Amino acid sequence: MACGRRSGDTKRQVILFILCFCVCQSGAETLRYSLPEEMERDSFVANIAKDLGVPLSQLAARKARVVSEGNEQLFRLNQNTGILTARESLDREEICPQSDTCT
């Protein structure tokens, strides 16, 4: 009897894991863009809504946002238009001083 219970618990855990994995994958997407060095302030980077294939109304409804690793936000997303712009002039040497490439 204990063996049957353990098998059911394992199946339940596997199903839960698969369900969580599918939900997580469907809810978030990562976009990557290559930008020129010393990009000017308020320069156009991308149209996020178009690249994601999401209607503009969904950006605000889903609370779309740009997430940075550090404290400084380098980009601005307009939820009404889907346009991503550079908040300030971007200088690679300033952002990533010790690296040839900057991510």
Major sheet, described briefly?
A: 3 strands, antiparallel
Residues in helices, as a percent range: 25-40%
Strands, count = 3
Radius of gyration: 21 Å
Give the neighbour order of strands across the main sheet: 1-3-2
The CATH class name of the domain at 34-91 reads Mainly Beta
Query: What gap, in angstroms, lies between the N and C termini?
Result: 55 Å
At the fourth level of CATH, the homologous superfamily of the domain at 34-91 is Cadherins
CATH architecture of the domain at 34-91: Sandwich
Instruction: Name the helix and strand elements from N-terminus to C-terminus, one letter apiece.
Output: HEHHEEH
**Poorly predicted residue ranges:** 19-26
**Average of the residue pLDDT scores:** 74
CATH topology of the domain at 34-91: Immunoglobulin-like
Query: Helix- and strand-based class?
Result: alpha+beta
Number of helices: 4
Specify the overall morphology.
globular
Strand content: 5-15%
Protein described:
40% of the residues lie in helices and 11% in strands. The protein is an alpha+beta fold and 103 residues long. The chain has a domain of 58 residues: Cadherins (Immunoglobulin-like), CATH 2.60.40. The chain has a 3-stranded antiparallel β-sheet with strand order 1-3-2. 6% of the residues are buried. About 8% of the residues have low confidence.
Layout of strands and helices, then pairs:
Blueprint: H1 2-27, E1 44-47, H2 48-52, H3 56-61, E2 75-77, E3 83-86, H4 92-95
Antiparallel strand pairs: 1-3, 2-3
